[in-house]
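Summary for the steering committee. One of the milestones for this cycle was to obtain a three-dimensional model of the protein with hypoxanthine bound, which we needed before selecting residues for the alanine scan. The sequence and ligand used are listed below.
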Amino acid sequence: MTPHNHAKPGDYADAVLLPGDPLRAKWIAETFLDDAQLVNSVRNCLGFTGTWKGKRVSVQATGMGQPSLGIYVHELINVYGLKTLIRVGTCGGLNAKVRVRDLILAQAASTDSTIVRDHFGAYSFAPIADFGLLRSAAEKAEARGMRCHAGNMLSSDIFYHEDGLAAYGKLMAHGVIGVEMEAAALYTLAARFGVKALAICTMTDCLVTGAEIGAEERQSSLREMVELALEVAVEG
Ligand code: HPA
């Protein structure tokens, strides 16, 4: 038990899906898992454990942004012993070749966050996905006929950037294809504690073209992404 999580040791599986939204965690548990049990509800940041195709797996909400994700992920790894952590989220698009509904696999995560930067002094640490999880997700997405891009994601601490798209110009010029708010902290913690992590995001709003996902498409895209993430997660 921690101040943020009342689960008992053993309540989580080795692998977890990490949506930001607590209600999405509940939806994932109710829609995809068999025998899902609520394991955490502190602050309504819901966590569940159940089975997927007979294999034990958990889902835990992280809240929005790297400070919030950092708390849950730190504890999942160090208090509960989790080994495989897969973020399932949405992101904004920073490249017109990525279409609304496409998946972005965050191969690496650039960031403006001091959480990552301040830890490394003179060095610019490069937060990266676990290669095995990344390869597995890319292969499975291709086999399922999903449009999917592996590339550099921006994990920003700022959703409403004062400078709008211009804020990301240099990053876009260096191949950064999407923006969300959590992957870099996830990858940095996974590296620090020797576990595996991947962030998979559905692109819901393109900052370059202004295209946005519709409500129905959002739901079907999330469904496909979660199925993919569960398949990758239970494989270990
Ligand atoms: N910025 C940051 N995070 C996001 C966005 C965005 O535009 N869209 C979805 N998640």
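Key point for the committee: The pocket of hypoxanthine is lined by residues 90-92, 156, 159, 179-181, 204-205, 207 (CB under 6 Å).
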